[in-house]
Specification:
340 residues; Isopropylmalate Dehydrogenase; 2 domains; 12-stranded mixed β-sheet; 38% helix
């Protein structure tokens, strides 16, 4: 198992987006706040060019092994080099960069699997550009699950968003709303509950996680007057989870789950679809949200925002979400070390 002294592996992300900007800003932030050491897997020339464009003085250290990052990090931003094909222009995504973006993710996972890094932190990608480059996965999460496959079987990844003590988990993620009812099942909800509870214990040090499960329909179905998914699918999943020893309540009306008093009653909220989970978190902590992938055999966090091509290279991008993603990956890895 990796030691806490090993660095975090930060991926390139789309080089035309704000990934280079926030990486530079996050490294510079160590002047006034603690930043866990990380190594960027990316193009040092593109990073250097972005620093010059932004007027930042960030010395780049090209290293050959991740273990060199910790000793270099205080004075230089360590980079394991991967060259991007073509010229990187901020705000102008180019599919020719797709191979380097994919290679960066693969190398980050290999570093964690080998113990040379203790967590994967991913900069934002453009799925459209990756698709043009031949990327065969719906997104980051599915690709990470494929890279983590063992014996031909990929793990079941679960997306959690976290900020300021609030944690939300959507059971269904990037699918049209009209397909949610077709996809929801007792088995899917139960698996999401189990993975969430187990990883909250492993990575967050919560001995007995309290999980609140939302309904799907307004007023959680109003006893069948507004829908039967609660009684037919969600409640049976909750009962099955309780039978396995999990502390689970619900189904709760989603519109009353996130006021201050309600949030104090659970460690994570399990919601039925994407916006049901993400709207409250982004409303309460838009700049601090961290995307965590649960259910993998390694730690993965990411800023809870996209590539923001419109402000790439302008200096307007905030590194706060990336800093929080780095810190959360750091604390999760330490919690896992303590439990080992």
């Amino acid at each position: 198992m990796a030691h806490v002294e090993t660095p975090l592996a930060l991926t390139l992300g789309d080089p035309a987006g704000i990934g280079p900007d926030i990486t530079l800003f996050a490294w510079l932030a160590q002047r006034h706040e603690p930043i866990p050491p990380f190594v960027l897997i990316g193009d040092p020339a593109a990073l250097d060019a972005r620093a010059e464009r932004l007027g930042l003085k960030v010395p780049i250290a090209i290293i050959g092994e991740a273990e060199a990052a910790e000793t270099r990090f205080a004075e230089e931003l360590p980079v394991l080099p991967i060259n991007v094909t073509g010229t990187v222009v901020p705000g102008r995504p180019d599919a020719s960069a797709a191979p380097a973006v994919q290679q960066s993710i693969e190398q980050a996972v290999r570093l964690v699997q080998s113990g040379d890094a203790r967590a994967v932190v991913t900069n934002p990608i453009s799925k459209a550009m990756l698709y043009r480059g031949g990327f065969a996965f719906p997104g980051h999460t599915e690709y990470l699950a494929a890279l983590a496959a063992s014996g031909g079987k990929a793990p079941h990844p679960v997306m959690m968003l976290a900020a300021d003590g609030l944690r939300v988990v959507p059971v269904t993620i990037h699918i049209p709303l009209k397909e949610v009812i077709q996809v929801l099942s007792k088995e899917l909800i139960l698996a999401t509950i189990e993975i969430t509870a187990n990883d909250l214990r492993r990575y967050f040090g919560i001995a007995r996680p309290r999980l609140a499960v939302s309904g799907l329909n307004p007023h959680a179905g109003e006893e069948g007057a507004l829908g039967h998914e609660e009684s037919d699918i969600i409640a049976p999943a909750i009962e099955a989870a309780r039978a396995r020893g999990f502390d689970v309540t619900g189904p709760h009306p989603a519109d009353t789950m996130f006021h201050t008093a309600a949030r104090a009653t659970f460690d994570a909220a399990i919601c039925m679809y994407h916006d049901q989970a993400l709207i409250p978190l982004k409303t309460l902590a838009f700049d601090k949200g961290v995307n965590v992938t649960l259910g993998l055999p390694f730690i993965r966090t990411s800023p809870d925002h996209g590539t923001a091509f419109g402000i790439a290279g302008t200096g307007k991008a905030s590194p706060r979400s990336l800093i929080e993603a780095l810190r959360l990956a750091d604390s999760m890895s330490r919690a896992a070390e303590e439990r080992a």
